[in-house]
Amino acid sequence: MVEWFDWFVYASFATYFAGSFFPEGNDTAKLMNTAGIFAVGFFMRPVGGWLLGRVGDRRGRKAALTLTVTLMSASAVLIAVAPTYAVAGYGGVAVLLVARLLQGLSVGGEYAASATYLTEASAPGRRGFASSFQYVSMTAGQILGLGIQIILQRTLTSGELHSWGWRIPFVVGALGAAVIFYLRRNMLETEVYDAADTTPQEERGTLRALLRHKREAFLVIALTMGGTLAYYTYTTYLTKYLSNSVGLPKQTATLVSFCALLVFACLQPLAGALSDRIGRRPLLITFAVGATFLTVPVMSLLKHAGSFWPALGLSLVALVVVTGYTSINACVKAELFPTGVRSLGVALPYAIANALFGGTAEYVALWFKNSGMESGFSWYVAGCAAVSLVVYLTMRETRDIDLKRVGEKADGAADTAGRAPEAEPVNPARSAPTTG
């Protein structure tokens, strides 16, 4: 939650600090500048995915998780103390840029390390349910950020928020990350990682080992494409869309996002548990069909939502659809790779897809708006979802895969033409490691 709070709070408060780091001018142009820096963080995620994915496969999931939160804490401190344009000119922008680069490194490894940890630490028949809590915690980070924003909007004047109030959440994030650093140092390693693996120690977490699973790596990129774009459209960009395009007051737009995300977080475990019963593919296909055919109508109707309730209702429709992807994408990706390359296999392809589609979502949306073709962004989201739909329809089911035997072709675990073997029983006492 703290890790993703630090990542998302940048987008949530961008409307308040955009004017602090850039000279006076068009408000949309200022938002595009801050969105551009937001996107730069995404382009560091593949580097973080490679670096921290390697650490996760060679040193353990615990080591990677501890390192990611250290980087995130440092970046939050930098943003909290960044000088404004009036004080240091574009020097403040340079500090923002460095902070986002550090955040990109951190999140590039965080997603894979946590997805791998949750999947490996769960009993075979509960992996969908357990891994769904990744997006519960990610969304909780956004909710916490929006909650702080709502409190600040009601306790500070608009001038105070634009002047210095926006720094408060970054201070909170830095302090929270320090606490999480201590907690993660006392985590147990997963049994699956500790168990013997067919990947030689010297090849664990290497690109050479990952290249033996090229098909799975490209599959992760393709199945992430539509999902991550839809997710960032209806979470980080939604508040700006409601205030900058729909015309709702900033306070109302923030409250809509806050309430919608609360419901969204509650849906994740339900959908994850459902995937343990019916499989992953039905949920992914449902998401892709909904995102392909509903994105344009929902965004068009949102444009005319003049008050809180219509905006909330339409936002919930979109997030219910997105749940089909978010609730299970972590375990689906982890189930594709063997232990020795699982963290890297999830991290690097996912980070590449996020850099290309998730990180640029807000910038592309604002570009369409600035060009007078705002509706084009909706068609762009729908088109990417359609591409992912093709992937979901052709991929195999991963629910019953035995994580300890993924990649052992002789045993049929990696036979893409056949059904995955039944998962072997897991000792309940070791199925869910706890913190010390």
From TrEMBL:
Domain Major facilitator superfamily (MFS) profile residues, every copy: 1-399
GO MF assignments: symporter activity
GO cellular component terms listed in the entry, alphabetical order: plasma membrane
One Pfam family matching this protein: MFS_1
Transmembrane segments: 7-23, 35-52, 164-183, 217-234, 254-271, 283-302, 308-332, 344-365, 377-395
Its membrane topology: Multi-pass membrane protein
InterPro entries assigned: H+-coupled_symporters, MFS, MFS_dom, MFS_trans_sf, Sugar_transporter_CS
Protein name per Swiss-Prot or TrEMBL: Alpha-ketoglutarate transporter
Source species of the chain: Streptomyces eurocidicus
Compartments, as annotated in UniProt: Cell membrane
Keywords associated with the record: Cell membrane, Membrane, Symport, Transmembrane, Transmembrane helix, Transport
Family, as annotated: Belongs to the major facilitator superfamily. Metabolite:H+ Symporter (MHS) family (TC 2.A.1.6) family.
Region (Disordered): 412-436
Top-level taxon in the UniProt lineage: Bacteria
